[in-house]
Amino acid sequence: MADPQDVKDAEPAPAPTERRPLPGAEPAALTTGRVRDARVRPAPKVPSWVLKIIMAVTGTVFALFVLVHMIGNLKIFMDPEHLNTYAYWLRTAFEPLLPYEGLLWIMRIVLLVCLVAHIAAAVMISSRARASRGTHKRRGMTNLRSFAARNMLVTGTVLLAFIIFHLLDLTLGKAVAPSGYQHIENGQAYAYENVVASFSRWPVAAFYMFALLVLFVHLAHGLWTVVQDLGATGRRTRAVGLFLAGAIPLAILLGNILIPIAVLTGVVK
Ligand code: HEM
User: Fold this and answer.
1) Ligand 1, atom 36: nearest CA belongs to which residue?
2) 175 and 258 housed in the same domain
3) Residue 221 lies inside a defined structural domain of this protein
4) Is the shortest distance between the CB of 84 and ligand 1 below 6 Å?
5) N vs C: which end of the chain shows fewer Cβ within 10 Å?
6) Into how many domains does the chain fold?
């Protein structure tokens, strides 16, 4: 039997073929992997890493808002006046330092700026991803995590539609609001009565429950991406990040979905 060493000696490794840059490509791209030549790929005005940071920060602001909002909503299980007093307090908080509804308007402006930045960054990132992928199609990823990842634009659009519906329904009392919607009057808010009136319409309650499930899928993938994009490394940090990325959306889902269920079953009336 031939000595493996002899075989190795007898067959010298083939000389590496010379790599030449394609016409118009930057020669350094072969070694660095980065294409800088503006004729091949013009440098984007906003780098993708900046877009990812914008998405991560604005997404975290949304997650914190929905978490606090859910905790406030749970007051519906105490008694009507708890939720109504809270709704009125939101308008008079920090008076006279802030004007009437000052805190609400600060929150609305922050949320609106975050929403515009989040959507703009999402559209830019996904169109860049599509351009880089070309005609190649991803295959073989069918679990829930990859479903959430692939459908972030779809779930995000459903959530945008839900937010518009929800503002008309319970904040503005317009168009889709229940008949008998009551606006704040003489220091009295009617958030409790409005929520009960709205969720007593079962298609509306079903739409809220569907939107809350969509929110769970969107938030769980989004928060896990935040952990990655803000650079969490290390086993323990990533384990805590993964836990929070599941626990926060789950708490938001359970805390909120109980409300339409409670109204439909007559536990809250
Ligand atoms: C069962 C679930 C929910 C209930 C019962 C609920 C209830 C309410 C109520 C009663 C208001 C009006 C508060 C007021 O005018 O004092 C409100 C406002 C609002 N809710 Fe919800 N909400 C729910 C889920 C959500 C979700 C999932 C989101 C976000 C994705 C959301 C975002 C908002 C926003 C942005 C406002 C407007 C705050 C403002 O500018 O006055 N809500 N919600």
Assistant:
1) 167
2) yes
3) yes
4) no
5) N
6) 2
Does ligand 1 come within 6 angstroms of the Cβ of 104? Answer: yes
pLDDT band at 35 (very low <50, low <70, confident <90, very high): low
CA distance linking residue 52 with residue 249, whole number of Å = 20
Distance, CA of 152 to CA of 264 (rounded, Å): 30
Query: Structure tokens of 260?
Result: 């339409």
> Which residue in 123, 122, 118 sits closest to 63, CA to CA?
118
Q: Are both 212 and 81 inside the same structural domain?
A: yes
Model pLDDT for residues 64-113, shown as the tens digit of each residue: 999 999 999 999 999 899 999 999 999 999 999 999 999 999 999 999 99
**Atom of ligand 1 at shortest range from CA of 91:** 16
Portion of the chain with pLDDT greater than 90, in percent: 68
Average pLDDT over residues 201-208: 98
Residue 207 Cβ inside 6 Å of ligand 1? The answer reads no
Same domain, 30 and 99: no
Q: State the greatest distance between any 2 C-alpha atoms of the chain, in Å, as a whole number.
A: 101
Q: Are residues 150 and 257 in the same domain?
A: yes
**Residue 107: how many other CB atoms lie within 10 Å:** 15
Residues 37 and 111 grouped into a single domain: no
Q: What share of the chain is helix, strand, coil (3-state, %, to 5)?
A: 65, 0, 30
pLDDT tens per residue across span 218-253: 999 999 999 988 888 888 999 999 999 999 999 999
Q: Whose CA is nearest to atom 7 of ligand 1?
A: 73
66 lines ligand 1 (CB under 6 A): yes
Pocket test for ligand 1, best of 61, 68, 83, 171 (most atoms within 8 A of CB): 171
Q: Are 23 and 104 members of one domain?
A: no
CA 47 to ligand 1 centroid distance, Å: 34
In a domain, residue 239? The reply is yes
Q: Which domain holds residue 220?
A: 47-264
pTM of the model: 0.85
Residues 94 and 136 in one domain: yes
Stronger pLDDT, 189 or 131, i.e. the higher one = 189
CA of 221 from ligand 1 middle (Å) equals 22
